[in-house]
Amino acid sequence: MKKHNVWDKNVFQSRFDKTSKKGYVPGSPDDTDLATYKAAVKGASDYTPVLVMGMTLGLREALCSLNYSVTCLEISDDAISFLSNGISKPCRKKEQIVKGNWLEMSTLLNQQYRYIVGDGVFPNILEFSDQALLIREIGRALESTGKFVTRACLVTKELDLENWTAVRLVERYRDNAINSAEFGHAMRIWGCYEEAYDQDTYLLDNNTVYGIYEKWYANGKLTKEEHEIVNQQYFGGHHFYPPEEYWESLLKKAGFSFKKTTHTGYIYYDYLPIYECSLPLKI
Question: How far apart are CA 114 and CA 100, in angstroms?
Fold first, then answer.
């Protein structure tokens, strides 16, 4: 198994609208999430150095609107090719994209940043040791008064997993209790929790998940529409989805204090909180 994920063309073709190139919510942050990100980092002076981990379109556009100096760090050639020009031309002209590994950011970039932001970053880091390493790398790359902001995907205290099985999610969707975004994303992450999630490694095997749903579709247990919605959240490898307690202990061990924001209104907010993380001032 790879220690971290590198997204390829198959992922982008599934998870992004072919015309707008916008990612399907909530695999990509929605407007409420983006407003929270923006509020967390506003107020600095023009051209403040900011690092985006990855190529998330909404984050890049939001930071550009604040007139910050934006650098994107991304390891995937396919991501860079597919998403580089997915933001407005004025914003694209003001940012730089660096190809490289997040786990080497402090030495690779050789610069400190007022803000580091990254959406859905840590699920792509598959080893416990590398999770801790990435937290430390972020700390090294932050200015002393800096802040790290990220949306995490967690097994949170709010989750009642018995109500999130694939059978229940299909029932809830057909009863119009949840919308297509809520349905598709929850089906991938929680629908096959018993079959595809390892509670020792915190890894979800997406191949197992989608293998189950292909059989469901072939057997008529998913409609064509439902099958298409589920596949809008496609990923073919593993993801790291830890308990909330583990994630917060990781932050604390690295010296971060944090503020957690959990929105209300959609079911995916229950497991996708946003964390604003700061290090103590050095005197």
Answer: 20
Closest CA to 81 of 11, 160, 171, 163: 11
User: Rounded CA gap, 44 and 67, in Å?
Assistant: 9
- Nearest Cα to 71, choosing from 116, 126, 124? 116
In the chain, where does DSSP find H-type helix?
9-15, 31-41, 57-65, 77-83, 89-94, 105-109, 128-141, 166-174, 180-189, 193-196, 206-218, 224-231, 244-253
- pTM confidence score: 0.94
Q: Give residue for tokens 């859905």.
A: 120
Name the residue type at position 52: V
Q: Looking at the chain, how many residues does it have?
A: 283
Residues 141 and 59 in one domain: yes
Token couple for 85? 């020009």
Rounded to whole angstroms, the Cα distance separating 53 from 161 reads 30
Which of the four pLDDT bands, split at 50, 70 and 90, describes residue 239? very high
Distance CA 1, CA 152 (A): 22
Q: Are residues 60 and 130 in the same domain?
A: yes
Residue ranges making up the domain that contains 165? 161-240
Residues 145 and 43: beta-carbon distance below 8 Å: no
Same domain, 108 and 32: yes
Asked whether residue 6 carries a pLDDT value surpassing 90, the answer given is: no
Q: What angle do CA 198, 204, 208 make, to 5 degrees?
A: 100
CA quadruple 209, 73, 23, 162: dihedral positive or negative?
positive
Residue 78: count of CB within 10 angstroms of its CB: 16
As for how many domains the chain has, the answer is 2
